[in-house]
Design brief:
Blueprint: E1 2-8, E2 12-18, H1 22-34, E3 38-49, H2 55-63, E4 91-99, E5 102-105, E6 110-111, E7 124-128, E8 133-143, E9 154-161, E10 164-167, H3 176-180, H4 203-207, E11 213-216, E12 221-227, H5 233-258
Antiparallel strand pairs: 1-2, 2-12, 3-8, 4-6, 4-8, 5-7, 9-12, 10-11
Helix pairs in contact: 1-5
Length: 259
Amino acid sequence: MKIEIIEENNLKIKFILRDAPIALANSFRRAMKSLVPTMAVDYVVFYMNTSYLYDEIIAHRIGLIPIKTDLDRFNMPDKCVCNGEGCPNCQISFRLNVEGPKVVYSGDLISEDPEIKPVYDKIPIVELHKGQQLMIEAVARLGTGREHAKYQPVSACYYKIIPEIVIRENCNQCKNCVDVCPRGVLNEKLEVTNILKCSMCMECVRVCDENAIDVEETENYLFIVEGTGALPVKTVMKMALEILKEKAENMNKIISEII
């Protein structure tokens, strides 16, 4: 298995996963979405809320705000010395006390640690009108996307198979496949210009009267991953692979014990 990065920035990465069975590609995708832990608000204590929104709606909005995560500093609640009861090693608190008229944004949340804060400052939470007040305390902890979507470190994570276009010797050069291709994958010389554009729509195969062209699946995949900002996308990829490796080793151990 090889990974070839073809495009990268702070929040998005595009790469090719080569020489891997499709089961591994899908496991990799699922691990990035549901097994890599991030920080998110788990519960909110309301001391005062005179806005037009119910407590539950505001708590839900706050829970979905991406929070910068430091995996070296915090433990998963079930692996912490406090056994999940809550301590500085596994959770952090945010305070909010504002009065209207004002639009309350994610940047108004005051963290115990300046390094652990919302990724974006301008996510709207609620609009307060004159005389309205919101006073809360929010507690964030680590969790995984398998538990709740708010813990997912990626907002989008998907892949497609990179095919191989085979043109046989009995091709009569009619070039109908060139005209019908919706993405211009083939040029006038019947050469593949950019195989990554191919969507495997099979229009080129259907239009060929000589059955001289075929689109075959390969074990190469184009991945596109967009992060929430809670963790660098490369960190998410690395941790997902480490988690899959650990699961495979545990499975081999169980199988060897059974045998």
